[in-house]
């Protein structure tokens, strides 16, 4: 499973790169997206959910970006360093080869208290001329960037962001003004140069020596490799598991422990369509699944930090669909006055904030069970909180909700009911093993049986030999594959449902979320990996291995960073990226094939 990316980067007539042409850097606070042509087209500073300094991905003609590009025609080879999130790009021209090494730097003591985007370019053969272009973003024309000189240098301002562009004397500045920088550098074999962007928001700015920035590129690589080596997994597909774990690590906010669903907003689920969402929030579902995946591979500190953060939000706000990275409830959707990716209207905020989704109960309790099964301990306050949530689940499961797919039509979605069954099952297990109060244990058990009886009576279709999307429909839902992981006991019916999903929702190696979704979006990557995991847990390992190989081959034109969806007809990525749900589903599928998944 080689994540090396090759190609001749091409922007279309509108100035957009294909989404699969992007890689990602991260430092535990922010994530930057770098195109195959050397252009950083998205970077929110200093946090993942801050307004962007670079936003060319949503406005290719007017957005902010930071490009290092050969002046001559070129091709590229790109990869992450082994077991690291430091990126290397090889530019190949008729006259030479140059290597670009990029990192959002950390320090020897962990995350730096400022954003440090470092880019080192080295000439390996011949001679390579490179153009440097920086445009500071205007945040959808709400700020006007400017430069201000002082005794320590020339500082750029973009609204509340301030920073400095650092470079050595090799760089020949052609233009440097309020809107950005244009420069040129020529390198012969053995020569190198380092460029960096240092930035913060409403805070004093440290300007480190460029030599130290350069050293921190390799230091950051060592830190990433040390983290990868700390993972306990040593089974099949190890490099694949580690690469997906590294992608998930990019989305964990180290200041809080929260886990962002994706690093971007408004990358469309169908080009030009209206399904464009802001995923720069911490979903309970995504956080829970990621915590479980981290626990499975021994990333205990990340799992503990995220679980603590999640429990505190539940105590503070109650069970909501998502929270902001700093723990607030977040805003509903508002439009942004930008063209959007390939004319797909962009937004900030997310209207799922106020939805009722029963799936959050199953997600919370499955996470707690995984935490306990890893040998950890619940405190008394958290145990009382979980007991109250179990009571809430037992009371509200009969209500219609928005479902796992956050649809505007409330229904009695089958997956939601199974999630309520899952929540009460895990609560009972925790109570039986002394981790939760047992006062309501018998009540939870009776309610769990009522939920299962309701599912079997109302959600199963003899005609389709499958659990339906919701009672009364003739539609299928690929997320029911998760019921296998949840331990839902009707395995014969689940096998039959998976076969029906394969017949109706598969498109090549990938799967749509539910019936009729092909009319409005691409295939949802997590669904494909959930189905693979389900086959593995049901004992069909060979089938799961074949499906995993086909899915990974279908994603091989990227560099190991997955989006939310894919167009099965042409392989184009769709939706926000890096998409945590895609990566953790891929990781869990590999673990299940290796026998690391839950065995119920």
TrEMBL record:
Residue intervals of the GH15-like domain: 235-590
Keyword tags: Hydrolase
Highest taxon listed in the record's lineage: Bacteria
Ranges that cross the membrane: none
Annotated InterPro entries: 6-hairpin_glycosidase_sf, 6hp_glycosidase-like_sf, GH15-like, Trehalase-like_N
BP GO annotations: carbohydrate metabolic process
Positions of the Trehalase-like N-terminal domain: 19-91
GO molecular function: hydrolase activity, hydrolyzing O-glycosyl compounds
The protein's name: Glycoside hydrolase family 15 protein
Organism: Pseudomonas putida
Lineage start: Bacteria, Pseudomonadati, Pseudomonadota, Gammaproteobacteria, Pseudomonadales
